[in-house]
Amino acid sequence: MTIQESKRLWVSLGVGLFWFLMLLWPLLGIKPGGLEFSETWAVFSKIAVAAVLIVAVYHLRQAGVLDFIGTPLVKASEAVGRGYQKAPTWLLLAVVLAAALIYPQFAGRYGNDVAISVLIYICLGLGLNVVVGLAGLLDLGYIAFYGVGAYAYALLSLHFGLSFWTCLPIAAMLAAISGCIIGFPTLRMRGDYLAIVTLGFGEIVRLILNNWMTLTNGPNGILGIPRPDFFGYNFASLSSLYYVILGIAVFTVLAVYRLNHSRIGRAWEAIREDETAAELMGVNTFLLKLLAYAMGATFAGLAGAFFASRMRFVGPESFTFLESAMVLAMVVLGGMGSIPGVILGVLVLVALPELFRDFELYRMLVFGGVMCTMMLVRPAGLWPAKRVGRRSEEME
Amino acid sequence: MKRLIVLGVALAALALVLAGCGSDGAEEKQADQVLKIGTLSPLTGPYAADGNDIRQGAEAAVAVIKAQGGIPGFSDIVVVPADSACDPKQAVAAANKLINDKVPAVVGAYCSSATIPASETLAEEDIIMITPASTSPVVTERGLPYMFRTCGRDDHQAPAAVKFMKEVADVKSVFIVDDKTTYSQGMADGVAAAAKEAGIEVLGHEHVNQGDKDFSAVLTMVKDRNPDLFYISLQNSSSGATMVIQARRMGINAILMGQDAVFHPKLIEFAKADAEGMFCTFGDIDTTTQGYLDFLANYSSKYSAPGAYSAYSYDSAMAYLLAVKAAGTTDPAAVRAELLKLSFDGASKTVSYDEKGDSGSNYTVYQVRDGQFVPYWNSLTGQKY
Amino acid sequence: MDYFIQQLINGLTLGGVYALIALGYTMVYGIIQLINFAHGEFFAAGGYMGVIFISWLAAQGVHPYVCLGIGLVLAMLYCAMLAMAVERLAYRPLRQASRLAVLLSALGMSIFLQNGLMLTQGQYDKAYPTEITAGGFQLGGLYISYMQCLIVALTIFLLVVLNLLVFKTRIGKAMRATAQDKVMSALVGINANHIIALTFAIGAGLAAAAGIMVGLYYGTVSYSMGFVPGIKAFAAAVLGGIGNITGAMIGGLIIGMVEIFAAGYISSQYKDVFAFIILIGVLYFKPTGIMGENVDDTRV
Question: Does ipTM come in above 0.90?
Answer without folding.
Answer: no
